[in-house]
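Two records follow; treat each independently.
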Amino acid sequence: MKAIVLGDGGVALDDAPVPQPKPAEVLVRVRACSLNRADLIVTSGRSHGAIGGPGTIPGLEWAGEVVETGAEVPPGIKPGDRVMCTGSGGYAEYAVADWGRVAPAGTELSFEEAATLPLALQTMHDAIVTNGRLSAEESVLIQGASSGVGLMGLQIAKLMGAAVVIGTARDAGRRARLQEFGADLALDPSDPEWPGQALSATGGKGVDVIVDHVSAGVMNQNMQAAAVLGRIVNVGRLGGFKGEFDFDLHALKRISYIGVTFRTRSVEEVRTINRLMREDLWDAVTAGRLRLPIDRTFPLDQAADALAYMRSNGHFGKIVMTV
């Protein structure tokens, strides 16, 4: 099969063996795959969890048709099914995924659209609903809301009954578009007054659930904006891995600060994340209520160009490669 393979000089299209599914895995003929920030880490020569190093085929999410299933795969997944998956090795003509990381794509979604959804759906449902413990009529703030995952978070928060949904983005053009995806208010995190604006939007109470993709420099401002007994869920660290932390403010507000990542999840935990997400969100997915914009599409053999485009940070929504 053709695949994008990481070598000493970066990524290149090369021949690779078709992966063979293990008993609990599903082999998929990939039709489209989506780019994620973690792919930039891997293709720069660093590791992302267990993924990385020469010979690696990047790609964390894709969509296509089931070709073969292992002996332990439930009968609900069968050859010919249109599916979306998460895992590793998606920048290729074929990829395998654990059956618990597979979801039906149906005929209402193109493969390109389906490839944008699984990681964002799983990550943000886990952050907002499971770890953020959102209740109806509470408030949500997505720090770094103009990313694909952030845009999905805005939509999920609104779908799950949040009374006030706030998104942040540094770029004015991107902030202007957040309302399209459910934001009641868009704030500029480079404005030192933004925590006060979030407090005003929540009637002085503060934000109940903050999902943070930025970390580092915004941590104390997040706590200023948070409600007493608020929950801050750390999903990403695009702004840095280390920063100041006001321990007294954390204690005064009795904030629950929760870090999440898929890198240390067991197979069983990821299956549970996918199952819970589908229980809450799948009707909305099939009805077209949860979608991500596709900024640009590249063919697989232009993976280096697609990655460079992501690295330039000029996109809004998702970048997809067709296979």
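The next record belongs to a different protein.
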Amino acid sequence: MPSRRVSYDLAEAPMAPGEVAIVGAGPGDPGLLTLRALSLLEQADCLVFDRLVSREVLALASPRARRFYVGKASRCHALTQDETNALLVRLAVEGRRVVRLKGGDPYIFGRGGEEAEVLIEHGIDFRVVPGITSAQGCAAYGGFPLTHRDHAQSVTFVTGHCKADGELALDWSALAMPHHTAVFYMGLANAGLISRQLQDHGLPASHPVALVERGTTPEQRRVITCLGELVETIAREELKPPTLIVVGEVVRLATTLAQPTPAAATCIEGETLELVPRRVVL
């Protein structure tokens, strides 16, 4: 049976020339994209996107949209954040309908707030569309909840790396509370510090930890370990970013609630990406 598009009426004004939409692309599975995000992708003249936005999500954008890759990895940035800000301003000033597409949710460790501040400073209209953040997607597809009446009554999302090469200064006592789930984004490089600090502040070495690599995608891997073996597990399994670290008793539910890994997606051929020149000025 041929596929059928879902019809919808979002009762929302269409994008205006010179407007920027800061949109959450979700953790990878295109089925987790919101209808509002899909509507804006179809309207975009320009698509400015990060490294963690999946090819399947990008394929939903208008084929006429120019694509600008501004992804960041550790010590390897296609553009600095200032240059990305400048690009958004330039495209908007040129009258383009710009979708700034970010993995997960743009306001959860996505620098969406910083970009919104720049747009306001330059008098540029914008809207924000939330997305399913990695913690939600990785937990659901990894087979465990983030909260549970018997195991965790609170959850904290934590950035696992610093803005600069400084100390990861966190409220470790709060993160090591009982009946609590702590989710570390971008934490692989500091896994040893995370393990040591949580144990120093009261959690046992046996406390369960889930590692979810490339969550919600066909390449998803879920590894269950404990705080005392966290560093060794990461090395043994050769886990790479993006990998989420989830610490908490809820992880024990993964043995009973786990679901199959998402079905393999069809490879999209022939997609071309427009590389942004390094010199971008306001």
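Discussion point: Confidence is low (pLDDT under 50) at residues 263-282. How would you locate this feature using only the token line?
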